[in-house]
Amino acid sequence: MFRRTARSGAVPGEASKGGMLRNFDVAGSSADELTAGDLPRLVAAAAECEPHRIAVTHGADATTYARLHREVVALDAAMGVLLGQASLVPIALATVFPALADTARGDLRDVVDALVADLMDCVAPEPLSAAG
Fold it and tell me: Which helix (H) or strand (E) holds 56?
């Protein structure tokens, strides 16, 4: 399951549909779990192996893994200690696509879900439970 960790111990999105990330099953019934804190590492891996691959699209706009990784690195350098790893990729996406900052529409959640799906195809094509 893909879930966002919370400092309070609660898992946002599990108790309400307004959570930023929905549950995302990475490898069927995999015992391994990904969290939003894993996204910066996965984006870095994708940027290394396929920098020009489209990471996500929003409307008519698109961004590559290389650009998204640069945004994540810059945000981490500027505010990473305050934000934490789990917030870096969603905030970087909202920087690349300013319209995503409108949380009432839920577009950011949908874009993060699409990113996670593509990351699993790009950097983890084998089920995580098969990785030894």
Answer: strand 54-58
